[in-house]
Specification:
The chain is α+β, with helices and mostly antiparallel strands and 236 residues long. It has eight helices and five strands; from the N terminus they run ααβαβαβββαααα. A five-stranded antiparallel sheet has the order 1-5-4-3-2. Helix 2 packs across helix 4 and helix 6 packs across helix 7.
């Protein structure tokens, strides 16, 4: 003779609870969970202050802990922003909300001070492909909660290299000038003055490229990556 475990469960449950009691308890749990999600969404979209959260250090994953210096370096390299979550204009995925709920449950805390690393176009910047959501731990450290979207193009690092700082834009202009000068055919140079002509051509190209970069930067109100990575203001 076999035992139907489902029927045994129902029999045992019905001794203690009516169907109405069960439904009321389920509704209460769902309403509590919905309210929790709404609070998290408000904390992200409205922005909450705070530079620290109460985490249980023993439960943190070390590959999700980053110092502000590491974040700054990546932002400068790939021309990204690291700003308060209330400036983020794209939608926060449900998976990120679920991760926050799980963290709050495990660490018995309420998280605040959310920040997001992403390209400028994903932020509502003020005029006066791959976001990462962080929460502050304290003392300059941040905990990576969730990453979504597509990965950055492998070429973005090199395309944004000239805009990191003044040194990189000078190096880029010098390299570009040399490459352009090298592209000229041998017939362009006089055999006797080839080296001198090459140097003068490089210098001329460097000045031309430098002028174009400065003109573009000033006219468009652009700034170096090192100056905008944590700025909430729009360029140009």
């Amino acid at each position: 003779m076999k035992v139907d475990l489902k029927q045994q469960l129902l029999k045992h449950r019905n001794k203690h609870l009516t169907e109405a009691d069960i439904l009321n308890q389920v509704h209460a749990v769902l309403n509590q969970d919905t309210q929790h999600e709404e609070n998290i969404n408000k904390a992200i979209t409205n922005g909450t202050t705070g530079n620290t959260n109460t985490f249980n250090v023993d439960l943190l994953e070390t590959d999700r802990i980053f110092h502000i210096s590491h974040i700054q370096s990546i932002c400068i390299t790939y021309r990204l922003r690291f700003l308060n979550s209330n400036l983020f204009k794209a939608e926060i995925p449900q998976e990120a909300i679920n991760n926050i709920k799980q963290l709050e449950k495990v660490h018995q805390t309420t998280l605040s001070g959310f920040k997001i690393m992403a390209p400028s176009k994903l932020f509502k910047l003020e005029n006066y492909d791959d976001p990462l959501l962080f929460a502050p731990i304290g003392n300059g450290y941040y905990y990576l909660i969730h990453k979504w979207g597509n990965d950055l193009s492998v070429w973005r690092k090199w395309l944004m290299y000239p805009f990191r700082n003044l040194d990189t834009i000078i190096v880029s202009a010098v390299v570009a000038a040399i490459l352009i000068a090298l592209s000229f055919p041998e017939s362009y140079y006089h055999p006797k003055y080839k080296t001198t002509q090459f140097i003068f051509l490089c210098f001329f190209m460097f000045k031309t490229i430098g002028f174009c970069l400065i003109f573009f930067g000033v006219s468009k109100g652009k700034n170096f990556n090192s100056a905008i990575w944590n700025s909430g203001f729009r360029e140009g």
